[in-house]
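pls design
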């Protein structure tokens, strides 16, 4: 699937290419000027670095755990849930950040084990909007734009929508310390390497050659390891009108229906 957002001005070659491809013209992003900025991967529990892995820029360091094994217990509880094919719904709200142009993004994911239904709405600074829907069921994937026809797409492992990807690996979860939110005692955890937004589906006609350089999921879980809320950052790169630039994603997450029955079906 290629881009299909509304466009006001396009370079002639881009416009011709879109018409030839049978898609509707889309709005190009302004050409940015700042260089890519990578995000370091955090350390891991039990790796010798403790809970001192890298935090998102501007964030406070994780609160030290008053109970030495509390972080390990929270991580193991989460791994146990994920290993059993965790189901949940996830509300997403934030931004896709380019150098001189931001796209607001909001939407939801429904997850049942490895099956995922995603609906994400992108809003350009100019007001144009696009809705991208993705279904991943039984190892097959489909995508559609603005309620159009579903199109089968190749499943690329690095782009599979799974914010917890890699969490089952030993030492993959970082303890962020005890947190109190709304009077509830929660535990902060960090997991590097998951995927929540596929950069190749970001609806901008002049964004090409997208790739991810790092990703970090920071979540709050209850005593049973069930995720409650969180924040997801992804650092990446792409060419905007041919110029290599950073493409960052920064979104807040709210979980619901964790462990309940969630149905995800093929289109």
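designed seq:
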């Amino acid at each position: 699937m290629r881009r299909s957002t509304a466009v006001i001005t396009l370079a002639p070659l881009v416009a011709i290419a879109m018409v030839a491809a049978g898609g509707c013209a889309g709005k190009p992003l302004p050409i940015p000027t700042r260089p890519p900025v990578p995000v370091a991967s955090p350390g891991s529990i039990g790796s010798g670095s403790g809970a001192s892995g890298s935090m998102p820029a501007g964030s406070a360091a994780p609160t030290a755990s008053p109970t030495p094994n509390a972080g390990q217990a929270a991580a193991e509880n989460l791994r146990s849930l994920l290993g059993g094919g965790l189901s949940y719904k996830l509300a997403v709200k934030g931004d896709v950040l380019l150098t001189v142009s931001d796209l607001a993004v909001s939407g939801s994911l429904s997850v049942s084990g490895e099956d995922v239904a995603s609906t994400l709405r992108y809003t350009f600074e100019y007001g144009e909007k696009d809705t991208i829907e993705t279904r991943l069921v039984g190892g097959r994937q489909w995508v559609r734009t603005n309620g159009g026809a579903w199109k089968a797409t190749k499943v690329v492992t690095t782009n599979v929508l799974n914010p917890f990807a890699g969490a089952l690996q030993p030492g993959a979860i970082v303890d962020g310390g005890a947190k109190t939110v709304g009077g509830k005692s929660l535990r902060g955890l960090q997991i590097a390497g998951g995927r929540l937004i596929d950069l190749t589906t970001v609806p901008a006609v002049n964004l090409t050659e997208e790739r991810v350089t790092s990703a970090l999921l920071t979540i709050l879980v209850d005593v049973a390891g069930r995720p409650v809320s969180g924040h997801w950052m992804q650092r990446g790169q792409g060419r905007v009108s041919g110029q290599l630039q950073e493409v960052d994603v920064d979104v807040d997450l709210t979980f619901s229906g964790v462990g309940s029955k969630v149905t995800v079906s093929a289109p």
